[in-house]
Specification:
With 69 residues, this protein is an all-alpha fold. Helices cover 80% and strands 0% of the residues.
Length: 69
């Protein structure tokens, strides 16, 4: 049996970016200031999109490695 390499790096980066997005969203919900809201809109949402793209890429890579795609 050959050992399979799971693309863990993509999952880890996606999790970290999602945690950062959630912390930023929590700050906006608790205490909204114009600067914090602008930071959330320009930084938080692209972080979430990048995390989602990394997650989808890691899942597709894992499925291809297991020859399910």
């Amino acid at each position: 049996m050959s050992e399979r390499r799971i693309p863990r790096r993509g999952f880890q980066i996606a999790i970290v970016l999602t945690v950062l997005f959630n912390l930023l969203a929590l700050l906006v919900m608790i205490h909204t200031t114009p600067i914090l809201f602008t930071l959330f809109m320009f930084v938080g949402q692209p972080l979430f999109v990048l995390a989602l793209a990394l997650l989808v890429g890691a899942v597709v890579a894992d499925l291809r490695e297991k020859q399910l795609l």
